[in-house]
């Protein structure tokens, strides 16, 4: 399944993330790709809110720490950033464990850096800047992990965006 959405602003990106977070099953790896400033961290904030993470508003990109974990929701959210791992010869063990945790959700920004390590149970969210406020968000769910996603995101799907 593939969906193409248009988000007209940050608040809408948060709402899209919240819908994803409400539906994502534990044990899922979410690969976020897209250019700098595309809104990946805002989407993760929404996902955290949808998972019921109480500290979602304080969520920040783990660019320098590589991984931050958030507890208190219906499952643990591991937020990983591969941006600084581009030159690394190997993935740190705790990140690889988080990517495969069956009871947690792992969301990775700049996931294309280590695409060969993505678990089989994953979906990809690609974000593109359309203009200053607008983002095009393409969601690929090859294993159909979230069949209700297109219904939940119907408000943002472009006319030709559900495949």
Describe the structure.
Strands 3-4-5-2-6-7-1-8 form an eight-stranded mixed sheet, with helices on both faces. A hairpin with a 6-residue loop joins β3 (67-70) and β4. It has one domain: P-loop containing nucleotide triphosphate hydrolases (Rossmann fold), CATH 3.40.50.300. With 163 residues, the chain is an alpha/beta fold. Helix content is 23%, strand content 28%. It has helices at 10-23, 40-51, 93-99, 149-152; strands spanning 2-7, 29-34, 67-70, 77-81, 105-109, 122-129, 135-140, 157-162. The radius of gyration is 14 Å and the shape is globular. It contains four helices and eight strands; from the N terminus they run βαβαββαβββαβ. α1 (10-23) packs across α2 (40-51). The termini are close together.
Please specify the SSE layout and strand pairing.
Elements lengths: L1 E6 L2 H14 L5 E6 L5 H12 L15 E4 L6 E5 L11 H7 L5 E5 L12 E8 L5 E6 L8 H4 L4 E6 L1
Helix pairs in contact: 1-2
Please tag this protein with its features.
alpha/beta; Rossmann fold; globular
Task: Note the run of SSEs as H and E.
Answer: EHEHEEHEEEHE
How many domains would you count in the coordinates? 1
Summed over residues and divided by their number, the pLDDT gives a mean of: 87
Number of helices, where a helix is a run of at least 4 consecutive DSSP H or I residues:
4
Which fold name fills CATH's third level, the topology? Rossmann fold
**The CATH H-level homologous superfamily:** P-loop containing nucleotide triphosphate hydrolases
Beta-strand fraction estimate: 25-35%
Major sheet summary line: 8 strands, mixed
Query: Which CATH architecture is right?
Result: 3-Layer(aba) Sandwich
Gap between N and C termini: 6 Å
E-strand count = 8
Tell me the strand order in the biggest sheet: 3-4-5-2-6-7-1-8
Helix/strand-derived class? alpha/beta
The level 1 CATH classification is Alpha Beta
What general outline do the C-alpha atoms trace?
globular
Percent of residues in helices: 10-25%
